[in-house]
Amino acid sequence: MGKVISIANQKGGVGKTTTAVNLSACLAYYNHKVLLVDIDPQGNATSGVGVEKGGVDQCIYNVLVEDASAHDVLTSTMVENLDAIPATIQLAGAEIELGPTISREVRLKQAVDKIKGEYDYIIIDCPPSLGLLTLNSLTASDSVIIPVQCEFYALEGLSQLLNTVRLVQKHMNHRLMVEGVLLTMFDARTNLGIQVIEEVKKYFQDRVYQSIIPRNVRLSEAPSHGKPVILYDPKSRGAEVYLELAKEVIANGERVR
Ligand SMILES: Nc1ncnc2c1ncn2[C@@H]1O[C@H](COP(=O)(O)OP(=O)(O)OP(=O)(O)O)[C@@H](O)[C@H]1O
């Protein structure tokens, strides 16, 4: 059975999509069968793996709102071993359209459970909110990776996120756990970055990944070429560190098993 991992933080611009795209590609590089699910209406994970949003016929919206099956909407990508379920701007209406629906928090889980057996990892890129789309993602997941940007207010808002995780654990999904906290956009030239690392490690202790994602221009350029960084510039520091992260995620799963 595949492991389902949400990449979540309601704060915007902390590196969720960059992590979802590059962790997925790196797990696939290590010969794991991976499905990347984009549940963010911005659709950046979709274009980040080279899927043209303009050419998408059906997306995650059709799964959540119209009961399409995951098989109907998934597509292969240019990365070997990596499939994707795309999102387009149509998804922006889903929260409102699902408003009165019964079991609206379990729509994604119902779809994902049916294809879990075909993948080793299913990685879900969440939007920057704790609304219905993120709730669907946490309800469908075994665990959550929380990217935290190395900046002054790094820990702000995390108690709200952890509270949401606890509520989902209690009411929707008992097995949900925090897979790990990932420090992103670290700039070694500033003292602030080092202080943030210490602060986050004090709070989350051994749940913080050893791999710390640096600020790396190749990581920010790769999406405009529709490629994960291991294809865009495999020798870059960004590619190296996401490969290290993938190894940690794999090792973590083996420890738990
Ligand atoms: N390690 C990094 N080095 C340089 N740029 C980065 C890095 N990580 C992310 N970025 C850039 O920062 C911006 C925000 O990153 P990203 O889209 O991954 O964040 P997000 O949390 O998914 O955002 P949103 O909340 O809007 O969904 C993007 O332009 C991305 O290319």
TrEMBL record:
<comment type="subunit">
    <text>Dimerizes in the presence of ATP but not ADP; ATP-binding is required for double-stranded (ds)DNA-binding. Interacts with DnaA.</text>
</comment>
<dbReference type="InterPro" id="IPR025669">
    <property type="entry name" value="AAA_dom"/>
</dbReference>
<dbReference type="InterPro" id="IPR050678">
    <property type="entry name" value="DNA_Partitioning_ATPase"/>
</dbReference>
<comment type="similarity">
    <text>Belongs to the ParA family.</text>
</comment>
<feature type="domain" description="AAA">
    <location>
        <begin position="3"/>
        <end position="177"/>
    </location>
</feature>
<protein>
    <recommendedName>
        <fullName>Sporulation initiation inhibitor protein Soj</fullName>
    </recommendedName>
</protein>
<dbReference type="Pfam" id="PF13614">
    <property type="entry name" value="AAA_31"/>
</dbReference>
<dbReference type="InterPro" id="IPR027417">
    <property type="entry name" value="P-loop_NTPase"/>
</dbReference>
